[in-house]
Design brief:
Blueprint lengths: L3 E5 L2 E13 L2 E6 L3 E5 L14 E7 L2 E7 H4 L12 E7 L2 E7 L1 E9 L3 E3 L12 E7 L2 E6 L1 H4 L2 H17 L7
Parallel strand pairs: 3-12, 6-8
Antiparallel strand pairs: 1-2, 2-3, 2-9, 4-7, 5-6, 7-8, 10-11, 11-12
Length: 175
């Protein structure tokens, strides 16, 4: 997690900046340093035999990026307002991946004291998707662990998807 030092009246305090986004009715956060850009959804090309939550791939300025639908990943309902949907383009193990979310809300700063580890809240299936919960007044934000949203097998599947789409490019477009 990236930590920025900020000064306040009581001395120096550690803060984490989270991009807050909505999936269904829940608010999630991701360290802004993990996000390369936020884009509107683009035309997706479906990929046969991909994991069920992989919507397909997009071509972003010549780079093929697999897009994971976090609604499907977290077993949420499909968005009732797709116009607000966004794709968070993130770096994951040296590769780019898109995360489809219902709406990007804002960037908020949280101190370490406002963070509670996931082990205090989550037990069982899916608990490893989260680093913890950030709390400010009545606001609760579930902090996503980007490295664990995809299992090792799913990451291998994404690499295979990229390889398949790269093989289909004409020789002049391959890098």
């Amino acid at each position: 997690m990236t930590v920025a030092e900020t000064a306040n009246g009581e001395g120096r305090k550690r803060e984490i900046q989270l991009a807050c986004f909505r999936i269904g009715n829940e608010l999630y956060g991701l360290d802004i340093m993990r996000i390369k850009e936020i884009i509107r959804p683009q035309k997706l090309t479906p990929v046969p035999k991909a994991p069920r939550f992989i919507e397909g791939v997009i071509n972003l300025r010549g780079t093929v990026i697999p897009v994971a639908d976090l609604r499907k990943r977290f077993d949420q309902q499909v968005s009732d307002n797709p116009r607000k949907n966004r794709i968070l383009v993130c770096a994951l193990e040296g590769r780019m991946v898109g995360l489809l979310v219902d709406e990007v809300m804002e960037v908020r700063s949280f101190t370490r004291q406002e963070m509670t580890p996931a082990s205090m809240f989550f037990k069982g299936q899916g608990d490893d998707f989260f680093l913890g919960v950030a709390r400010q007044d009545d606001l609760l934000v579930m902090l996503l662990d980007l490295d664990r949203v995809l299992s090792s097998d799913e990451k291998i599947s994404l690499h295979q998807i990229e390889a398949m789409t790269d093989e289909k490019k004409p020789e002049t477009e391959r890098s």
